[in-house]
């Protein structure tokens, strides 16, 4: 295995010592991913110099893998004569992504160096909602007709396949581009030359609509283990395909967004080190402000029972444990349910099953924790039996409320077409804190007075 650090140092030394012939030879042997990583870590001027040394067939592939910041720097630095061939070699969906992410001056340069037909298609693709199937698809697919023979189909694939995103699955359409079915390259290779496509293609195929949400696309890919998925319009005309590499990017993006929301932050697609301190603070302050204000209700509850606390100050020592255990219990349940909803393992209609299962788990866990804290308080800490019973009973009820809240709130959010991740740890902890205190003081009032 090649040591990436050594490789980067070797490239840097060749660049610093201006050994350009050796540098060109070194870059030509590199994997596109590794070359893009090296260029991303270089200053813009050096990165452009290294990019110009790449072989033409490798340059476009490397360009597609660069960060958007480095791509923008390249577009503004290289000439139109250099940019044109790169855009020509890029997959169409990569060109669309490029236009979406670049600043206005870079977009203008891209469009000027694109063909008239390609410009029309780019503008058409940009009209699809940002998180829709239409925004993910590419038009570079193989389309066949039913009246073709296998020999004609294979000949057509040889002529056009080099510019297609994938050739392993081919799509059968009629004269109006209506999707009629699919046929795999394997079936074409194994079938007799003079067999008609009509006799070997599968008429039943899975597809998505251009306006379907990208999460729907991910679910379909995961369920059927596709390498590519056709995208049709409302009249079932084949518009494009989505490939598995684009879906992997969506999965990573969705997972990152969920983690950010669960940590009480506003989602952001920018890399952490590339985001300013002001932006990061702005993304975090909203939720923190909301949660801080919500926690003032907890203070109001404590204030309401000031006389009770003054009479039995020992009650105060158990408050942090009760609140933390309740918050942790709720977070456990909400994390599992949010994940289940995201993967499709749990559906909205399963809410009763989830509630019944979490109720039994909460009862079992709550009783065990309650007995444990009762034993510790009474036998080790030598607290009065009623005091220990108060804490134990409160913990049982708190854990049950927390787990039931943690399982139901994400499902409710999903039902309201909100992101279930907003019902994660911080929000549930805030709710459970207030509830656990009210339960604690009510039980203390009943058992100790």
List keywords for this structure.
three-stranded mixed β-sheet; mainly alpha; single chain; 21 helices; elongated; 449 residues; 65% helix; 6% strand
Tally of separate helices: 21
| Helical proportion, percent range | 55-70%
Molecular shape: elongated
Q: List segments where confidence is low: pLDDT < 50 over at least 5 consecutive residues.
A: none
Summarize the structure.
This protein has 449 residues and is mostly helical. The chain has helices spanning 4-16, 20-28, 32-40, 44-52, 56-65, 68-77, 80-89, 92-101, 104-112, 116-125, 133-136, 150-160, 185-190, 214-224, 244-262, 277-304, 306-311, 319-343, 351-380, 385-415, 425-448, and strands spanning 143-144, 169-173, 179-184, 208-209, 228-232, 238-243. α3 (32-40) crosses α5, α5 (56-65) packs across α7 (80-89) and α14 crosses α15 (244-262).
Walk me through what this model shows.
The protein has about 450 residues and is mainly alpha-helical. Helix content is about 65%, strand content about 5%. It contains 21 helices and six strands. The chain has helices spanning about 5-15, 20-30, 30-40, 45-50, 55-65, 70-75, 80-90, 90-100, 105-110, 115-125, 135, 150-160, 185-190, 215-225, 245-260, 275-305, 305-310, 320-345, 350-380, 385-415, 425-449, and strands spanning about 145, 170-175, 180-185, 210, 230, 240-245. The strands form two sheets. A three-stranded mixed β-sheet has the order 1-2-3. Helix 14 (about 215-225) links the parallel strand 4 (about 210) and strand 5 (about 230). Helix 3 crosses helix 5, helix 14 packs across helix 15 (about 245-260) and helix 16 packs parallel to helix 21 (about 425-449). It is elongated.
């Amino acid at each position: 295995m090649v040591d990436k650090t050594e490789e980067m140092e070797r490239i840097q030394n060749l660049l610093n010592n201006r050994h350009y012939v050796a540098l060109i030879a070194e870059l030509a042997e590199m994997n596109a991913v590794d070359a893009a990583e090296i260029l991303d870590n270089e200053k813009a001027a050096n990165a452009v110099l290294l990019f110009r040394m790449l072989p033409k067939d490798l340059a476009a592939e490397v360009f597609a893998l660069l960060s958007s910041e480095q791509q923008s720097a390249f577009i503004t630095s290289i000439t139109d004569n250099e940019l044109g061939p790169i855009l020509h070699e890029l997959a169409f969906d990569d060109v669309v992504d490029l236009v979406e992410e670049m600043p206005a001056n870079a977009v203008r340069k891209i469009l000027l160096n694109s063909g008239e037909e390609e410009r029309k298609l780019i503008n058409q693709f940009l009209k699809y909602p940002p998180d829709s199937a239409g925004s993910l698809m590419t038009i570079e697919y193989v389309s066949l007709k039913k009246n073709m023979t296998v020999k004609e189909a294979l000949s057509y694939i040889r002529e056009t396949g080099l510019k297609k995103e994938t050739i392993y699955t081919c799509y059968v359409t009629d004269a109006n581009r209506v999707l009629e079915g699919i046929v795999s390259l394997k079936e074409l290779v194994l079938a007799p030359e003079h067999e008609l496509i009509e006799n070997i293609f599968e008429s039943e195929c899975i597809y998505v609509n251009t306006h379907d949400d990208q999460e729907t696309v991910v679910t379909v890919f995961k369920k059927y283990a596709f390498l590519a998925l056709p995208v049709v319009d409302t009249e079932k005309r084949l518009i494009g395909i989505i490939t598995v590499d684009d879906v992997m990017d969506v999965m990573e993006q969705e997972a990152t967004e969920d983690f950010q929301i669960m940590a009480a932050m506003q989602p952001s697609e920018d890399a952490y080190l590339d985001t300013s301190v002001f932006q990061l603070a702005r993304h975090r302050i909203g939720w923190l402000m909301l949660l801080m204000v919500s926690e003032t209700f907890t203070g109001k509850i404590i204030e309401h029972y000031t006389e009770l606390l003054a009479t039995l100050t020992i009650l105060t020592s158990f408050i942090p444990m009760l609140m933390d255990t309740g918050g942790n219990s709720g977070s456990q349940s909400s994390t599992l349910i949010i994940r289940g909803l995201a993967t499709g393992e749990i559906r909205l209609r399963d809410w009763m099953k989830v509630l019944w299962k979490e109720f039994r788990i909460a009862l079992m866990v709550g009783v065990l924790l309650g007995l444990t804290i009762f034993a510790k308080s009474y036998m080790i800490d030598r607290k009065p039996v009623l005091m220990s019973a108060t804490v134990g009973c409160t913990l049982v009820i708190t854990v049950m409320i927390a787990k039931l809240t943690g399982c139901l709130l994400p499902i409710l959010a999903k039902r309201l077409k909100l992101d279930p991740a907003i019902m994660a740890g911080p929000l549930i902890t805030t709710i459970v804190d207030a509830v656990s205190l009210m339960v604690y003081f009510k039980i203390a009032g009943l058992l100790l007075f």
